[in-house]
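Here is an idea for our session: we take a single protein and study its fold together. To get us started, please write out a protein record for me. Once you have written the record down, we can walk along the chain together.
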Amino acid sequence: MSKEKENSTALVWFRNDLRTKDQHSLYQATTKHRNVIGVYCFDPRQFQKDRFGFPKTNAFRAKFLKETVKELRLSLRELNIPLFIYFEKPETILPELISEYDISCIYTQEEWTSEEKEIITNLKKNLIETNVTVQTCYDQFLFHPDDVPFALNDIPKVFTTFRKKLEKYSEVRPLVAPEPLELSNFVDTETEVPSWKTLELSPPKTHPNTAFPFSGGEKEALHRLQHYLFETRQLSTYKHTRNGLIGTAYSSKFSAWLANGSVSSRTIYHAVKRYEKEIEKNQDTYWLLFELIWRDFFKYVSLAHENAIFQLGGILQKEYDWNTDWDQINAWIEGKTESDFVNANMIEFKKTGWMSNRGRQNVASYFAKELLQDWRIGAAYFESQLIDYDVHSNYGNWMYVAGVGNDPRDRKFNVAKQAERYDADGAFRALWTAETTDI
């Protein structure tokens, strides 16, 4: 054991990496330090209303997050690491913990979007008079930025080019796992996940018809992975079923756990590779890896273009005549448009916090290309409501659909034809348009 590990204490600041397996900040901390504490902050800014009047984090995602953090605490206890939980700004609470626990180093996930960068900048300002170092690492990617065959400011604009280069020249890194620390170093904490009252939200009800009835947390994520791949072998038909609309089986549903980091994309990748080796390899099994690369693509797009992904003209800086008609916007939100297919998806979304990939593409296209509303308002509503909200995928997809992102064809969905194709018997529309939108 090194002298450093004998005598120093590290702090792992969890962000959207809420797991213990294949978690590089945690792995580095437990490898280099004898003592480790974990911290997670429910940042009050993430529960305020945004510029369009939506809560940045609404009840469905908040519920999933609360469940995830509770699970993380239990998993860390198995490693003899306490988790301190606060409803507080990280840049305020972390310096206090550094003083109290004589922290020598903070380990955390590298972030690059504006709000997250501002937090780390503020934190470093508050640490100027200390000897504490902040170690960050990229831990959201399938293909690590150090391993990709292009400069980070020169990402291919077209996904196919991006994918083919990665598949040809890059490899996915192996998984890492932290070892438990000595039991004598464990210090419990009385801090708790904030109440619904503190978050100023009401606990959401689980709708009987939701396609996402799952709980948050690493164990639930790994259980779903095992179930979808090795117990039911649904991976073998993934490409053929992924455009479904009803039920839990039509797609993997991994996106929610990926979004808050309950599971890493590398963990899923290596599980798929094991499935292909032990059970079956076909176009369907590959297609899940294809979707993981799409997820990486939007992360690299935001890394390259920074705040342009939040601007009206997007990364293309295209000028369109966007509108802000709140009557039309609210009709879209409430599922009261002229399209019964859009309506069904939006009612499902309001009542469950979930929508299929096919639904998301159609309602976003309808909002931007039919109603001609400011696409950023639609993206902000998704941010508020989605259980599986991921800033890069959300804004990347909305730019793509709105014609200001990475779609070279600037296509527009014909929602009537999409309904005929994917809901031919009308079962999905019947399931949800019969509902009222009151929750």
User: Anything to note?
Assistant: Residues 283-305 form the longest helix (23 residues).
